[in-house]
């Protein structure tokens, strides 16, 4: 095989490799890791865990709405020694974030891209026995999570 034949063969191989790599590159760029159902499920699970971790210490539930829940917990060590008021809320607009505010301060985003959120309250008399919390982040319904949380210290 001469040098010219070898050079032509290498040139042809390079063109073939470039042609075969283009569809792979396009496919990799098209796949968005942030939009996978697994990622959305993790976001839903984070929201459920954050709410459950705080709500279980609720002393009183002051707002019982389908898209928002406000409750008080015992003082958590700040200087004022007063109970803390925590509010979780969603605007009921698909794609909007779930927010959390403490003591009426500016709301912080808990998770983005909430498609559905529902608080259901199970009450006996004036006492909230538990709250069912259902959330779906992202468009895939497999990313929905649900939890039922009972406050440890409900107001009597």
List strands and helices in order, with pairings.
Layout: H1 3-30, H2 37-55, E1 58-64, E2 68-73, E3 84-89, E4 96-102, E5 108-124, E6 127-137, E7 144-149
What number of structural domains do the residues give? 2
SS content category: alpha+beta
Strand content: 35-45%
Rounded mean pLDDT score: 85
Strand order of the largest sheet: 1-2-3-4-5-6-7
Question: Helices and strands, in N-to-C order?
Answer: HHEEEEEEE
Query: Which value, in Å, is the CA radius of gyration?
Result: 26 Å
Q: Characterize the main sheet.
A: 7 strands, antiparallel
Low-confidence stretches: none
Shape: elongated
Helix percentage: 25-40%
**Number of DSSP strand runs:** 7
The end-to-end span amounts to 94 Å
So how many helices? Answer: 2
Describe this structure in words.
The chain has 156 residues and is of the alpha+beta class. The chain has two domains: 1-31; 33-149, no CATH class. Helices cover 30% and strands 38% of the residues. The chain contains two helices and seven strands, in the order H-H-E-E-E-E-E-E-E. The chain has helices at residues 3-30, 37-55, and strands at residues 58-64, 68-73, 84-89, 96-102, 108-124, 127-137, 144-149. A seven-stranded antiparallel beta sheet has the order 1-2-3-4-5-6-7, with helices on one face. It is elongated. The model has no long low-confidence stretch (mean pLDDT 85).
Q: Which characteristics define this entry?
A:
seven-stranded antiparallel β-sheet, 2 domains, about 160 residues, alpha+beta
């Amino acid at each position: 095989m001469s040098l010219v034949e070898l050079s032509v063969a290498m040139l042809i191989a390079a063109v073939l490799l470039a042609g075969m790599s283009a569809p792979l590159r396009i496919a990799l760029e098209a796949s968005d890791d942030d939009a996978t159902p697994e990622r959305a499920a993790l976001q839903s699970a984070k929201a459920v865990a954050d709410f459950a971790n705080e709500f279980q210490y609720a002393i009183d539930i002051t707002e019982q709405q389908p898209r928002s829940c406000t409750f008080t917990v015992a003082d958590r060590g700040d200087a004022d020694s007063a109970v803390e008021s925590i509010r979780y809320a969603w605007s009921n607009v698909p794609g909007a974030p779930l927010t959390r505010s403490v003591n009426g301060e500016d709301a912080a985003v808990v998770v983005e891209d909430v498609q559905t959120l529902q608080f259901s309250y199970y009450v006996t008399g004036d006492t909230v026995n538990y709250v069912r919390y259902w959330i779906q982040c992202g468009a895939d319904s497999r990313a929905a999570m649900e939890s039922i949380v009972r406050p440890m210290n409900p107001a009597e």
